[in-house]
Fold each of these.
Amino acid sequence: MEDVVAIRGNRTVKRLGALIALGAAAFLMLMKAHTAYGAGGLALNTDYPGISVKPGDNLNIPVMLENGTGSSLNADVKVSSMPEGWEGYLQGGSYQISRIHVKNGNEGGEMTLHVTVPKELTEGSYTVEVSAFAGEGIADTLPITFMVNEANAGKGSFTSEYPQQEGTAGTNFSFSATLINNGLKQASYSLSSNAPAGWSVSFTPTGESTKVAAIEVESGVSKGMTVSVTPPEGVPAGEYNISCSAVSAEETLSTDLKVVITGSYGLTVGTPDDRLSFDAYAGRTSDVTLTVKNTGNVDLENITLNSSLPAGWTVSYNMENNLIPSIPAGGSVDVVAHVKPGSESITGDYVNSFTAQCDQTQGSADFRVSVKTKTVWGIVAVVIILCTAGGLGYVFRKYGRR
């Protein structure tokens, strides 16, 4: 009986040992298979894991996903981490993708990471992460670092050495400006300004004589230029802000200029039709219209009218006390002058000078006056001649046939 029990016990132990051995073998095989599958795993990589960028850049970065698991598989892919304000996605072929089929081995799968950098950005280092996942333990993450240095964060620059100048109306202002391209490639900049209406602004590269509307600047190079600013005639005194821009495909740069127009004064005397001559008769009053113009950029007040005439002549104006109360900057006033040559004036040409004057300035003009006298005896002679001719006609009619 004991032998039977011993035999059965041995069989049980053997069976138990066989089961344990079988389980251990199965476990080892499973572990071996899992290790082989996950040892190689997935690997994300790119040729340029660190890139310098500028605000507003749009980047296309090739990304490779390699499969070392021993068999082809489908992997979920995504942009798993992105700085605030940045935008990005993965593209495969012509599609935006979230999953990619990856063959085993070195061939792998190709993707493109599209990244849009915000237009407003401070200096520093920024990281974007791309992730791939095909099951537990079969995953990888690729960090890509984007560096923004001080030059790139500030883009290029467009500056003027002396951005504020002053002068009277009619002054031509010249500003010395410098345009710097901090980009990684040559750029073409269009040049423009927002000057007030009537103002003229032009750009001339340093060392050249030709005005330009655009300029090419190599990467990392600065270009000097002269910004010429011409205000319109008679511009009022005051401060004028002029912003000049340099615009390329990747950035817009600007520099702010200021022109201070100081007061300028001027008066001219003329006529509505610009004729500086008129006819007059001795002893009789003739009228001439004078145009008094304020050619400055400041309003003028209390403009007095004066004249320089030959002896015996007189002049008066249709203005009380020969005074013009005010003329605005750029404005004009018409005045009628009543000119009376002396009664003893003989026929001929005379010069009359008219002057408009105020505390700040004055203007004058010389007029040629053609004086004519009354021909009373000439009229009498004409009457005598007519009478004589009539008498002779009568005599010829009466005695002509005898």
Amino acid sequence: MMKILKKAQERTEEDRKELSRMVQEIIDNVRGNGDEALKEYSRKFDQCERVSMRVSKEEVREAYMQLSPQEVADLKAAASNIQAFAKAQRETVKPLENFSPMPGIFLGHRIIPVKSCCCYVPGGNYPLYSTALMLIIPAKTAGVERVTACSPVMKGTGKINPKTLAAMDIAGVDEIYAVGGAQAIAAFSYGTEEIAPVDMIVGPGNRFVTEAKRQCYGQVGIDFVAGPSEVLVIADGSGTPEIVAADLLAQSEHDVNAKGMVVTTDEAFGKAVMEAVERELEQLETADIARKSWETYGEVVVVSDLDEAVNLVNEYAPEHLELNVQNPDALIPGLCNYGSLFIGENTAEVFGDYASGTNHTLPTLKAARYTGGVWVGTFLKTCTQQSMTPEAMRNIAPLVSRLADGEGLKGHRQAADIRFTSQK
């Protein structure tokens, strides 16, 4: 019997109509007025007076000068792991040639990178320079010819955070633009005088960015529509409450809408985690955000056994899933809905956030039911092809003619029949 020790507040549907209207207005303005609209929003939202949104090589050099040698080395070390895993993933995606379902018919597919993409790197509460690595490196590894990146400026400065700029450069970006928000999504979707449009936009953002991606989808490809960050921990009571508490608060500090959840078979452990959260909040520098997030959306649930835990997790489909249990391998085959999996107490979710090599741009709000996170394959198209011999054509044409006729599509039938009759 499931028991809830701490219940999360239900997420209320935001005023979607008003948000949709505001974002549509921004998109229309950018489509109609191009760079002038972007500059208007930059002045309004970021107190930015940049003449050109394109970041120069000189600005990138200046950014490196503001970083310590250790900071640069750390970015390069994280980039190395991310790139190594991306290359390994790329090697698993292969073309297929000359598959024959019947004699004389040859089927296959090619793996083709998208031509261009924009990697949206948030500014927001924190400069998420790690996201620059997570988006740009897989795109470059996939073979995207033109990889652009954008990020909001630090308010009042007219410049992107120097660590974010360095991360973009280390990742191998081709173009960088100092612009953010829904207006950036519109610019890269439809193009302006300075910004050429792209084929795909990836990366997280606030609700305006998310809504803009939703509205521009179709004009441009997107990774997915992402919401607030989530972590769920399955625990059997064998772990350390303070470690679980730290992982919950690591997500909770993202923003006040983030969610941390524990599903445990041990009620005493669940209570110990809640107590450990309160102790850490007393000394956590980001406690203002983390406390509000935890109090509003934190959840601790006690279940009768690990099978029930697995069923609950698959229903919830969390972004990050941690297995803090004695025998995690026994649970893995039953788990099918999650963004990324962290196996065992040694494997902190934050390791994946920064440097272990897997991607941290992951599906939220139950999107893990139908998609995984950003990876090399996000930027690849699998495009099929076929060819056939005259004999194979004569064999298949009557079948296709009958199938087309059954649907009432006489033009389809004729396209099959004419080949059959002309080859007799």
Amino acid sequence: MRDQSPRRQNPRQQGARPNRRNVLFGGAVVAAGGLAAACTSNSEKDDPAPAAQAGSLAGDNDKPGTQVTLGFSAPAADHGWIAAIAKSAEAQARKYKDVTFKPVEPTNDINQQISAVESLIQAKVNVLVLLPNDGEQLNQVARKAMDAGIPVVNLDRVFPDKLSYRTWIGGDNYGMGVSAGHYIGRKLKGKGVSDPVIVEIQGIATLPLTQERSKGFADALKSYGYSVTAKQDAKFTVESGNQVAANLLQAHKKIDAMWNHDDDQGVGVLAAIKQSGRKEFFMVGGAGSANAMREIESGGGVLEATVTYPPTMAASAIKLGRLIAHGRGMADLVELRVPQSITLASETVTKDNVDTYLPLGFES
């Protein structure tokens, strides 16, 4: 969930994932979404003095204000998470009478996305919300927008140059690993397991986002005296997820716990597990898809939890873009302007709280 590899960057901070698709805004979704919604009125006549903003009522920022145009660009929706990103942004923009939403054709072609962003710069949008196919390769066009006086809200896949964006908002890949590791570590420790077999199914092993997830997982497990027994990457696809899970099941006659980085590829992982008939272990998923949450809700299977990487971050990016265009900050903060970066929390969704998170899940 991350950064500069072409096309498959993140389910969350890297490139688009193949096939269906690397939760929801987790506590942060509620937090960031709620934060962005909070503040002061957007109408000029009601503008409070700056010193009074910290005490303004949450929700005031949703009142109609100056008309603004928000440009939006993202990769093609070739998997569930990216599809949810686009839907989330558009749905949020529709909630504001003072926002004109100007999306460009989604694409996985770097040059086409650069051209699309340039068209938004030429159109002189007030703010540009941009989820790049590749942060490094779109860095210059984002900088071009900033130099033209158009603030850029960098969504998830970060640009290497901080001068290329006004605000970054995205998920926490390291935190995903930590959340999964703590769930597994606590449960195994509670059962008194001293030398567990823990397997990990990654996305694309060479991506920074995957490496961050794996590091967080290993660090959390270490606090319980545990370590990963075996790990293999599944390319973020259903087909590879199925094959990798089958291979791991065959290689390990007994497994205590499994962490799968991505709920989209998890469709294939779960299919392989069900086909094997194995039930001696429990599994934690990643990203927070609706189908994974429904599986958790129904119970009876190996999937007990998923850790979130919320596509609802796109809705919050729209909120942030609107606040930036209006020159406002977040009422829950003392500062007068939107922060430079916001990292969303990775929440752990279990049967105990799945009803709360299910409405935020995306379809794989």
